[in-house]
Design brief:
Blueprint (H helix, E strand, L loop, with lengths): L4 E4 L3 H13 L4 E4 L2 H10 L4 E5 L7 H11 L4 E6 L8 H5 L5 E3 L4 H46 L3 H15 L2 E9 L5 E7 L10 E2 L6 H6 L3 E5 L2 E10 L2 E11 L6 H30 L11 H18 L3 E8 L2 H8 L1 H18 L5 E6 L2 E7 L3 H17 L1 H7 L6 E8 L6 H16 L2 H4 L7 H9 L16 E6 L3 H15 L5 E10 L4 H5 L10 E8 L8 E5 L4 H5 E8 L3 E7 L5 E6 L2 H14 L6
Parallel strand pairs: 1-2, 1-3, 3-4, 4-5, 17-18, 18-19
Antiparallel strand pairs: 6-7, 6-11, 7-8, 9-10, 10-11, 12-14, 12-15, 13-14, 16-22, 17-20, 20-21, 21-22
Length: 616
C-alpha cells in the first residue's frame, strides 16, 4: 500500500478538494495550510508524495521544495499553481520539479500524476530495500567467515588478537580490550588495541564483581561511563563464562542495536573457539610430556617461554621463570640406585604439579634440573612459590622415602620479567645466580630448615663464647655480635619510609617486641598509610595500648617468655630481604642480622609455623 500524501495549500477549498479526490482512490491524505506546518509534519513522519501550492503566505512552494529536497533529494513533489506558465518553467526545473498542475486542477490529471509519482517512490523503496538486504547479506557472510575462522583456529594467541580486532571492526569501535578466563575463574587481560591507555585497564576482572550478573546472562550490553559509551561482550558457552570484550570510542558516538546483534554472533563463536583452543593446547601438551615425570620437554618450554616474552613486551605484563635443581641426585643414583633416583624425581614433579595453576608450565631440562614458567606472577609471588614448592616436596611420600636415607639437596631460584631481564638467557642467568646464593646460604650450611623458630633464633644468636658463624666475614650477608641499642628503632623508621614510598610493592614484615605499643616507630611511621597497602605487616608481642591500626595487624602473644626477652624484624619483599634478631641483657645488646634471602625466608616460615600465622 502506498504511503501517505501531504497536501500543502493556504486555500481550504483546494485542500478539501484534493483530499476528497485522492481519498476516493484509497490514498491516505494529510493536509496543512502553510509551508512551516509542512516542514514540521515531514519532520515527524515520512511522506511518499508532497503536493504543494506555489503561492502561499510566508514561505512559498518553491522554497518549501528546496528545503524538502535538502532533507531527501529523492522526495516526490507535485507543484500546483494558478499560473499556466509555471509548467515546465525555469523556476520549477531549478528546484527539480517536472510535474506542475494548473488550477483548477482536473481530477484525472491529479490522479495520473499522483499514481506515477507513487510508482517512482515505490521503485526507490524496493531498490533501497534490496540494497539493504544485499548489504546485510554481505555483512552476515563476513560474520560467518569470521566465525568459521574462530572455530577452526587452534592457536589461542592468534584467536585472542583476532577476536579483539574483528569485534572492533563490526561494531565500528576505535578501541577494544579482551579478558579471557583463567583456571581460577578470573578474567585476565589478554589483548587490547586502539586508543586505550594500558595503565587504565585492569589486569583481572572478578566474576563476582558488579559486572558478574551481566556477564553470566551472556548478552552484550552498553554502559555509559564518564560521557562515553562502552559495549561489553561476554563469551559464554553452555553456561561457562570464557571471556569478556570491552569496546569503546564508537565512530558514530553511540553503539546501535545492530552492533549488539553482531557482537553477540561473534562473541558466541569466540567462546567456542576459546574452548576448542584450550582443548587443543591440552592435547598438544599431553604429547610433549616426559614419559617418566609427565613434565614438558625442553623444546616445548622454550617455545612457550618465547611466546610469553612476546606477550609480556606487547602488553606490558610480567611473568616469572623458576629453576629447581636436585643437587644430590647423582649421589642418590650412585648409593641408592637408579630406581630410587627416578622415584625421587617423580615425587618432586608430582609435588610441583600439585601446587601449580593450569596456566603454569613445568619442564624437565635434565635428569636433575626442572624449569617452571608462571604467567602473571611478580617476583614476590615467585619467591612465595619457591617456598611452597620446597614445602610440598618435603610432604610428598615418594620424595620423603628417599630423603629419609639421603638428602636430595633441592634448591630453587627465581627471576621475573622485566625486573631481572627481557630475554630468556638473562632470566635464566638470574635464576642460576639465586640458586648459587641459596647453596652458599647460611640456611643450608647450618641445615636450619629442620629447626623450630626459637631453636633457630638461639642458634643464630649464640653468645660471646659461641663458635663463629661459618660464613662470618666482612663480605658475607650474615653477622652476629653486639649491636647498637638504637638499631631496632632505626630500622623500623627506615622500613616505614620505604613502605610509604612504594605502597604497591608486595612483601611481608614481622616486628616482634615484648610489648605492642603505639609509640613503636613502625606504628607511628605508618599512621597515614593506606589500608590497601600491598605489603602485609604484623606486630607480635604482649598487648599494651594498641588495639588496631589501618595498615598493621597486631598479634597478641600473652605469657610467652621468649617474646619478652627478644626483639626482631623480619622483612621480605620484592626488593629487600633483611632479618634482625636481638636479645637485650644487662650489658650491651647481642644480636644477629642478615640480608641472606634464604635465611630471612626460613625465619619467616618457621615463625608462621610457630604461631600458626597465615602464609602470604
Amino acid at each position: 500500500m502506498a504511503g501517505p500524501i501531504l497536501v500543502v495549500d493556504d486555500d481550504p477549498f483546494f485542500r478539501q478538494l484534493a483530499s476528497d479526490m485522492l481519498s476516493r482512490r484509497g490514498y491516505r491524505v494529510v493536509t496543512v495550510e502553510s509551508a512551516a506546518q509542512a516542514l514540521d509534519e515531514v519532520g515527524r513522519a515520512s511522506y511518499d508524495l508532497v503536493i504543494t501550492d506555489v503561492v502561499m503566505p510566508g514561505m512559498d512552494g518553491l522554497t518549501l521544495t528546496e528545503k524538502l529536497r535538502e532533507r531527501d533529494p529523492a522526495q516526490e513533489i507535485i507543484l500546483v499553481s494558478a499560473r499556466p506558465d509555471m509548467k515546465g518553467s525555469a523556476m520549477a526545473l531549478k528546484v527539480g520539479v517536472a510535474v506542475v498542475l494548473t488550477k483548477p486542477v482536473d481530477e484525472t490529471d491529479l490522479l495520473l500524476a499522483t499514481e506515477r509519482a507513487l510508482e517512482r517512490a515505490q521503485l526507490r523503496h524496493e531498490r533501497a530495500k534490496l540494497q539493504n538486504e544485499n548489504l546485510e547479506f554481505a555483512r552476515y557472510q563476513h560474520l560467518h567467515q569470521r566465525c568459521l575462522e574462530f572455530l577452526s583456529q587452534p592457536d589461542l594467541e592468534w584467536l585472542q588478537e583476532r577476536v579483539a580486532a574483528e569485534l572492533a571492526s563490526v561494531c565500528d569501535a576505535q578501541s577494544a580490550a579482551l579478558w579471557i578466563s583463567d583456571d581460577r575463574g578470573q578474567l585476565v587481560l589478554r589483548a587490547y588495541r586502539g586508543l586505550l591507555d594500558r595503565h587504565f585497564l585492569v589486569d583481572r576482572i572478578s566474576t563476582e564483581g558488579p559486572l558478574g550478573p551481566y556477564m553470566r546472562e551472556g548478552h552484550p550490553w552498553v554502559a555509559h561511563e564518564q560521557r562515553s559509551s562502552i559495549l561489553y561482550v561476554p563469551f559464554v558457552n553452555n553456561g561457562e563464562l570464557l571471556g569478556l570484550a570491552q569496546l569503546s570510542d564508537p565512530l558514530a558516538g553511540e553503539f546501535r542495536p545492530e552492533h549488539l546483534h553482531y557482537a553477540k554472533i561473534l562473541g558466541d563463536s569466540a567462546a567456542v573457539g576459546v574452548k576448542n583452543g584450550r582443548k587443543m593446547l591440552a592435547l598438544q601438551r599431553l604429547g610433549l610430556r616426559d614419559r617418566d615425570t609427565a613434565a614438558y620437554n625442553l623444546s616445548y618450554f622454550t617455545d612457550y617461554a618465547s611466546k610469553e616474552i612476546y606477550k609480556a613486551r606487547r602488553y606490558g605484563r610480567m611473568f616469572s621463570l623458576l629453576t629447581f635443581s636436585v643437587d644430590n641426585l647423582p649421589l642418590v643414583r650412585m648409593r641408592l640406585g637408579a630406581t630410587e633416583a627416578k622415584l625421587a624425581v617423580r615425587g618432586i614433579i608430582k609435588a610441583l604439579s600439585r601446587i601449580v595453576r593450569d596456566s603454569d608450565v613445568i619442564a624437565k631440562a635434565s635428569d636433575q634440573e626442572f624449569y617452571l614458567l608462571l604467567p602473571e606472577t611478580d617476583f614476590f609471588g615467585a619467591m612465595m612459590f619457591v617456598r611452597r614448592a620446597l614445602a610440598a616436596v618435603r610432604e610428598e611420600p615418594e620424595a620423603q622415602e628417599v630423603e629419609a636415607r639421603l638428602p636430595l639437596g633441592l634448591v630453587g631460584g627465581a627471576s621475573t620479567f622485566p625486573k631481572d631481564g627481557e630475554d630468556f638467557d638473562e632470566l635464566m642467568y638470574r635464576c642460576r645466580r639465586r640458586m648459587d646464593e641459596r647453596r652458599a646460604s647460611l640456611q643450608r650450611k647450618l641445615m636450619l630448615d629442620t629447626l623450630p623458630f626459637w631453636d633457630e633464633v638461639d642458634l643464630l644468636l649464640g653468645n660471646a663464647s659461641s663458635p663463629r658463624l661459618p660464613v662470618e666475614d666482612n663480605a658475607e650477608p650474615s653477622r652476629r655480635g653486639k649491636v647498637s641499642d638504637a638499631l631496632f628503632d632505626e630500622l623500623q623508621v627506615e622500613i616505614a619510609r620505604e613502605l610509604m614510598r612504594d605502597p604497591a610493592s608486595r612483601g611481608l614484615l614481622y616486628v616482634g617486641s615484648p610489648e605492642i605499643r603505639s609509640e613503636l616507630p613502625i606504628v607511628q611511621g605508618l599512621e597515614s598509610a593506606s589500608p590497601d597497602m600491598a605489603s602485609r605487616i604484623y606486630l607480635l608481642g604482649r598487648r599494651m595500648d594498641l588495639e588496631s591500626h589501618r595498615a598493621l595487624t597486631p598479634v597478641f602473644l600473652e605469657g610467652d617468655d621468649r617474646m619478652s626477652r627478644h626483639e626482631f624484624i623480619l622483612w621480605l619483599s620484592e626488593n629487600a630481604a633483611y632479618a634482625l634478631i636481638q636479645r637485650r641483657g644487662l650489658g650491651a645488646t647481642w644480636g644477629f642480622h642478615s640480608s641472606d634471602t634464604a635465611v630471612v625466608d626460613g625465619l619467616i616460615t618457621r615463625l608462621q609455623a610457630e604461631y600458626d600465622l597465615q602464609p602470604y
